[in-house]
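May I ask you to review the protein record following this short note?
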Amino acid sequence: MNERDHLEYKAAKMNHQNDHIQDIEQDHKTETEGTSSPLTRKVTYTIISILIGIDVLLIALHSMGYYLRLFPPDSLVLSMFIFNSIVLLSMGIIAKIYTIVAAFVPGVIIVFLILYFSHAIDDAHYKTIHSPIGNEAVVIKYSATSLGETMYSYDFYQSMLGGLLLKELNNRYSYMDFRRYDSAEDVLGMNDPTWKDRKHLIFHTASGEHTLRLK
């Protein structure tokens, strides 16, 4: 082998070694990026599990007549959306996936604005009556619909866990008023109820006594 051929052989060998080293470095870089990615498969499964758990819990509570005080009793979908958004936002911030944060922040703000204005235009009113005997409390949701005469409707909920949770009581009361009473409070006798004991609350309504039995 002459000197020229020998030099060409050494150059080809060095190029082959350099290519091999570059391939190894590229594989190592790809592996490192994959393992150091903030959103790993484990984190993804954790997020999905948390979301499913929250949704199942909210649906189960709703089916048993329990509601979160933060939301109106008939807003299951809205409460699920807000809780899921909060979880996704929290996970995005923790994992430093700011695309998730940027995508969900406007949506959550819009939903909160919708919730606020829906409360503002809703004709339902709420009043809480506390027991003088113990820590029991009853939340009354009431509304009035007027078409010449006025239909008053009342739904009752027992306050639990310091007011964070409401339990629906199956004692709905309605009354058709032909302009005899001035307000929904007067129809139910809301300002002067009688606590028979810690578990029984009696309203002296326009049509007679209406008794609530607490859980």
The radius of gyration is 32 Å. Helices lie at 3-36, 41-63, 76-94, 98-121, 184-188. Confidence is low (pLDDT under 50) at residues 30-36. The first helix runs from residue 3 to 36.
